[in-house]
Design brief:
649 residues; alpha+beta; 9-stranded mixed β-sheet; 16% helix; disordered N terminus
Length: 649
């Protein structure tokens, strides 16, 4: 629900209130629903929504405020779904809830319906904050096989209609949404997700209301529905589920008063840019003089603009501690945040913007929606869709995108959380524009191991790991949070057969260079060398499981960025043993130049050299490419689960 101003509706007399009659009534559970043991379209489901419905209309009994009547009926098939009986309703400011009803149905000993009603004293109201209140209740007497049924109404004095989710993490047999919207309200209605509507009706209802002194008014009546809705199943490497869960979304475009005055809420991007500066950026973009006094003189006096920008970036980066908050909208205060040395991403990056501007370096703010927040629509401005801000610096006609929240990001790199399609560059002198954020540095990991196997079954040698890009960033972050002793203990825990005898890390603080780690290691085999021994040569970070296991995936795979992982092992075996079996060589590619996996083996006398390369060349793959990607990773798992077999001569 968008937080928009209160509406003072003129008193009206409802001529026909048929819309309220569309609301679903309690008491619809049947014996057949109680006898259901498994949902035939998804035998793994712990519960299934039998029917759910929302109905939106103006309520004459509540001063013509917007009323939404909700109804749910759910079959509990397994005890793991008992938490569906715990209901929490969150209400913003002057929203109210009414008419809460709930019944649990079970079978009696004679096979009839046995009802257990929710008692009114089991509904609990909690004032969470100044603006938010919750109402909680739990349906009683829940068992495996129960059907729970509940309904309630939300009364709202605000413009706007809440989204309706057709899809959730359990399957649904039927989900419907109805709304009667006065003709002077204009909405942009978006149908999001991959499921098709089974019901999509709209009509004009004349004489919906009769406004005293003005006459009758019409409503547009909408009816939507989907049947047999599969559960939305999350899997690794996806953007926010909000992008893919099938739902209705309502964005208020305009309201026309009875006198014909039009108030627009969805405007042009030019108007939205102004609103962003005034309201959401809280006029924090004009603090240049404050920051000019606080940037060290040795940075400001640099002649080279790129060096100067890097110095300012590092100064802001090291000055602040990020409080893990993104963008506080109207609450941003850069001066206060700077003095406290702690701030949100908005405060930190607007400080960077002001500091660069103070040094006469061309800078623009860039607003975006993070990966977990969802992809915003570009059809029209919905400024509430955005939750993050970074900076674009232009130096010698080259663009650099900057985020100073993370001390381990090199100049010009952005966090993975910002890689979410297009972002909006806000330019107050020229027209704003769209840009697709991409990583500056390629992400790769190279692992090189040179090991010798002794007669008593111990490998010894050196391990060199080089990382760049996001792989290096993650590792630097880990190394900074642990002592060397704690880090090596964790490394040995992750690799139980490995003992680290010596360790050295290079380029820890040189963020624009690859991170390099050198280990001297000993690796004990599970058993001593015998007449016939098998060895899995993929000692480090072997892929044991396929991350892609769904039967069908209806949304894209998104890794965030392309990556390369190379592994090279030189293994020297004792002269007293011969090699009788080696892993099979593999070379496979993903369609559309999506990537490749190569396993190559070279045997020369008693030295085995194994090379593997896993390249993911694109950051995202469509749902049509899912099965190829799934099989690609399956082949990697199989290959890295293969063995070298040695026999005593």
């Amino acid at each position: 629900m968008k937080k928009l101003p209160l509406i003072l509706l003129l008193l009206a007399t409802i001529i026909v209130n048929a819309q309220a009659e569309k609301s679903s009534k309690m008491g619809q559970t049947t014996i057949g629903e109680l006898q259901m043991k498994v949902y035939d379209k998804d035998s793994t489901a712990a519960a299934v929504v039998l029917y759910e419905h929302a109905n939106v209309y103006l309520d004459p009994k509540n001063d013509y405020k917007t009323r939404t009547d909700y109804y749910y009926r759910i079959k509990i098939l397994d005890k793991s779904a008992f938490d569906l009986a715990n209901i929490t309703l969150e209400l913003y400011k002057e929203k109210k809830v009414s008419d809460i009803k709930a019944i649990t149905y079970n079978s009696s000993e004679i096979g009839s319906l046995k009802r257990t009603y929710l008692a009114k004293d089991k509904i609990f109201k909690v004032n969470e904050t100044e603006n938010w209140t919750t109402h909680r209740f739990t349906l009683p007497n829940i068992k495996e096989g129960s059907v729970i049924e509940y309904s309630y109404s939300i009364i709202s004095p605000y413009f706007g209609i809440s989204d309706w989710n057709f899809q959730s993490d359990i399957p649904k047999i039927k989900s419907e949404f109805d709304a009667a919207i006065l003709g002077n309200y204009k909405y942009n209605i978006r149908i999001i997700g991959f499921l098709e509507l089974d019901k999509n009706d709209s009509s004009i209802k004349k004489n919906c209301v009769d406004i005293e002194g003005l006459g009758p008014g019409a409503c547009r009546v909408y009816s939507y529905g989907i049947n047999n809705i599969p559960a939305f199943k999350e899997e690794d490497y996806m953007l926010s589920k909000k992008n893919y869960v099938s739902r209705l979304s309502f964005d208020l475009e305009s309201y026309t008063s009875p006198r014909g005055v039009i108030e627009k809420y969805t405007t042009t991007w030019k108007e939205a840019d102004k609103k962003l500066k005034k309201i959401f950026l809280n006029n924090q973009t004009s603090k240049k003089s404050f920051f000019k006094k606080r940037i060290p003189e040795e940075i400001l006096s640099m002649n080279n603009n790129l060096d100067k920008a890097k110095g300012i970036y590092k100064f802001i980066q090291n000055h602040y501690t990020w409080n893990e908050k993104y963008w506080n909208n109207e609450d941003e205060k850069v001066k206060k945040a700077f003095d406290n040395k702690i701030g949100s991403a908005g405060e930190i990056n607007m400080s960077l913007y002001n500091a660069l501007s103070a040094a006469e370096i061309q800078a623009d703010l860039v607003i975006l929606s993070t990966r977990e927040n969802g992809i915003p629509t570009k059809l029209y401005p919905v400024i509430f869709d955005y939750n993050y801000v970074i900076v674009k610096a232009t130096i010698n006609e080259k663009e650099y995108f900057l985020d100073a929240t993370d001390q381990f990001l090199p100049f010009g790199e952005v966090p993975v959380r910002t890689l979410n399609g297009e972002a909006r560059v806000i330019n107050y002198k020229k027209e704003s524009s769209w840009v697709t954020l991409k990583p500056k540095y390629k992400s790769y990991k190279n692992v090189t191991a040179k090991l010798t196997l002794s007669e008593d079954g111990e490998f010894s040698g050196n391990l060199l790991i080089r990382k760049q890009g996001y792989s290096a960033k993650k590792q630097r972050e880990k190394l900074s949070s642990l002592t060397e002793e704690d880090y090596l203990e964790e490394f040995e825990d992750d690799n139980p057969d490995v003992e680290v005898d010596d360790y050295k890390a290079s380029f820890l603080d040189e963020l624009d260079k690859p991170l390099q780690e050198i280990y001297t290691v000993s690796i004990m085999m599970d058993e001593d060398l015998s007449r016939k021994t098998r060895i899995n040569p993929f000692f480090f970070e072997r892929m044991k499981e396929n991350p892609f296991t769904l039967k069908d995936r209806y949304y894209p795979v998104d890794f965030g960025y392309a990556s390369k992982n190379n592994f090279a092992l030189s293994l020297k075996i004792p002269e007293t043993y011969k090699i009788t079996q080696l892993p099979k060589e593999v070379a496979i590619s993903l369609p559309n130049k999506g990537g490749m996996f190569v396993l190559k083996i070279v045997k020369k006398e008693n030295i085995i050299t194994i090379y593997t390369r896993i390249n993911i060349s694109r950051s995202s793959f469509s749902s049509n490419e899912y099965f190829a990607l799934k099989e690609f990773f399956n082949q990697i798992v199989i290959a890295e689960n293969s063995y070298i077999i040695l026999e005593k001569k």
